[in-house]
Structures are given as structure tokens and as C-alpha cells.
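Q: Sequence in, structure out?
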Amino acid sequence: MFASKLLLCSALLMLNGAVLSQTLIGLPNFKTPETTSEQPSTNSTTASTSTSTTSTTTEKPITTSSTSTIPPTTPTTSTEPPKTTTTPAPVPTTTHAPQPYPAPSVGTWNASCIMLQMAAQLNFTYEDKNGNLTHGLYNIPSNATVEDKECDRPTIQNVHLIWGPNTSKQSLLMYFDKKNDTTVLSSIQIHLTLLAEDFPDAKENQTLQLIHRSDGEFKTPEKMSYHCTRVQKMNLTETIDAKQLIGWISVSQVQVEAFRSTNATGFSTVHDCDSSETSDVVPIAVGIALAALILVVLISYLCARRRSTSRGYMSF
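A: Exactly. Output:
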């Protein structure tokens, strides 16, 4: 009877151990340390005492460790240089400055009684196709020819230059006067038709009559030639349709001689425009002033000497 109870207890213990083992195996990620439990069992009999020790060894459960290791995210470094968008620079637009109007050429003209050399340029206003006044420049050509002359009059002479096409002749007329053995320019008259090749924006069939009335230009003694290299400007005026147009003529490298003798072959002695001219009145006036001063000083000296002499006699 006692032996059957002992056998039943042993069976229960073994069953509990198996159930515990299965339970531990079914648990994931759980590690059970190895344990050894000893269950002593003592059986006493009247005849002898026997000790039976039952050792239950719990097996190490199979541990399934599922470890998912995610590698750290490493930023991707591109070794290629960054792409830069380059906007091409705009091509600079070069604006060419307007070319200066060419300087006039020097021409020489011989009309027997008048010999002329100069470079001349006209500066004037004219009417364009829109009815507005426009500024214009024009050079007197050096290849102009002597069309006419006036040499018979003793006090007035002139020379007439022409150029341009036969259908539209341009002209310049210069008058010289002689007074008190001195020659002087009295006037300049210019007839200028504005041709399309020279003034494409000008109103059609426009002709200018430019006039300069002199105030003593080119003044020189008789039998001498006037000479001046610097630029001289002389006003030009004209009245067309009650509109007064104003401009000027610029002359340079001028040498001119009027009232020449019939057998003259070239220019006479030069009278330069920049030469100093001193009037005879000035030295005469200075001489008179000095003489009067000397006379006053002399009279004062004589009066003072006479007074001192008179005092000397009175002291005796």
C-alpha cells in the first residue's frame, strides 16, 4: 500500500516536470537558466531503511533569439561637383559715336585783281521734311572755280566762286572796299541749294541765301595781303517766309589780297591778323605828357630857387 502511493507521487512529479518543460520551450526570447532540483524520498521499513533520491533535471530550453539588426543609415555623399547653371553674359552693344564732320580743304583762287586762299565751312539751320528747323554743316569745296569778278571800280571789287552740278549751281560772292589806303572785307553772299545727296532730310527744292555784312574783317593796308591761320567765325543771316535763320561761316588758313596791280604774280607782303598794331596817337600823347611834366618841374625849380635867393639878400 505504501509502495503504490510512492509510485503515484513519483509519476505526478515527473508529469509536472514534463509540463513545465514544454511550457518553457513554448516561450520565445526567454532564457531559463539550468536548474537541478533534487527531491529526496525516504522509505522506512521496520526491517531496513532505504533512501531513494529522484533527480529531475530540467533541460535547457531551446532559445530562439530573433534579432533584427538594421544598419544605421549612412548619408550618401556625392563626389561629383555640384552642377551650376551659368547664364551667359549679355553681349555688350557697342554704340559708335557719330563721326565728326570733316574739316574743309584749303582752296586757292586767282581773279587777277583779287587773290584768295582759305578753307571755309558753313554752319546753318534749314527746314526738314517735317517742317522743323535742323542744324547742318557744309564745306565750301576747294575745287570751286572763279565764275566772275569785278576789277574795274577803284573802291569796290568782288570775286564770284561757283561749284556743283549744272542744274543746280552753288555760289559764294565776296566784296572788298578800299578806304583811306586800307582794304577791308565788306560782305559775303552765299547761294546754297540743299541737294538730296548732301541733305537727305531737307525739304525739297529748298534754297538758302546766306548773307554776312562785315564789320571790318580782313582789314589790311593797301598793297599788302591779309593773312590769318586761326579760325574766324562770321555771322550769316537769311529771311525766308518771315523766318530768320541764323548761322555762321568759319574760315581758316586765310590769305587774301584785293586791289592788286595788274602785273602781280603772287601775294604781296603779309599783314598778319595777330600782329600788334599800335596807333601813332598813343606815342604822340605820351610824348606831350612827358614834355608837360618836365616843363612843370622846371618851372617849379626856378620859382623855388628865386625865392631862396631873395631871402638871402634880405638877411644882409
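The longest helix spans residues 281-315.
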